[in-house]
Design brief:
Blueprint (H helix, E strand, L loop, with lengths): L5 E10 L4 E8 L5 E8 L4 E7 L4 E9 L4 E5 L2 E3 L8 H13 L1 E10 L12 E11 L12 E6 H7 L8 H13 L12
Parallel strand pairs: 4-9
Antiparallel strand pairs: 1-2, 2-3, 4-5, 4-7, 5-6, 5-10, 8-9
Keywords: Hydrolase
GO biological process, one term: ribose phosphate metabolic process
InterPro entries: NUDIX_hydrolase-like_dom_sf, NUDIX_hydrolase_dom
């Protein structure tokens, strides 16, 4: 049986508007001391699978320094600290700011942890239907985003081929398209 760990201490190494990196001391359930164990204390994130009336997924292409490449991803970002109100409000805001699109029927379908071994935040996943461009992009200083509309069928066919290289966005797309009824799973016992 897996036993919980105990945190003995925590000290901040870097803390600013983007990140709170901490060196923590833990004792595992089996008694092993882990010091330091690095943890990222981030605010919650949101990702949005927005689908247009003509069955295209609203996606974004932006440069990612870790990959040193521009990558196709989903709109999303960090829930604001200023009491944004809800993760749904953050999802609606991120979709509008990054793409200029608004949508109906925002539905949260999952809220998994981002990286539970080293990060405390959850990623709230939404799908939204009837997405339409209603405004110009309102990008942050650090954003340089190209809006890309990809037919749902091309997303489904392209995911195993590397269309999206960001692991959490791959899972978000599969789950989002499943939740939105665009992917149907047939149990093997019914084949």
């Amino acid at each position: 049986m897996t036993r919980p760990w105990r945190r003995l201490g925590s000290r901040s190494l870097v803390r600013d508007q983007w990140i709170d990196l901490r060196a923590e001391s833990w004792v595992t359930g089996r008694g092993a001391a882990l010091d330091p164990w690095y943890m990222l204390h981030w605010r919650p994130w949101v990702h949005v699978v927005a689908i247009t009336p003509d069955e295209r997924v609203v996606m974004v292409r932006q440069f990612r320094p870790g990959a040193e490449a521009a990558m196709l991803e989903l709109p999303g970002g960090v829930v604001d600290e200023d009491g944004e109100g809800s993760v749904r409000a953050a999802a609606e805001r991120e979709l509008l700011e990054e793409t200029g699109f608004a949508a109906e029927g925002f539905s949260e379908y999952a809220a998994p942890f981002n990286d539970p071994a080293h990060a405390t935040n959850r990623v709230h996943l939404f799908f939204a239907l009837s997405a339409r461009r209603v405004a110009e992009q309102a990008l942050d200083v650090a954003e340089d985003i190209e809006v890309v509309l990809v037919p749902v069928a091309e997303v489904i066919a392209g995911l195993p081929q590397g269309l999206v290289a960001h692991a959490s966005h791959i899972g978000t797309l599969y789950l989002g398209l499943l939740a939105a009824g665009r992917i149907v799973v047939t149990p093997t016992s019914q084949k």
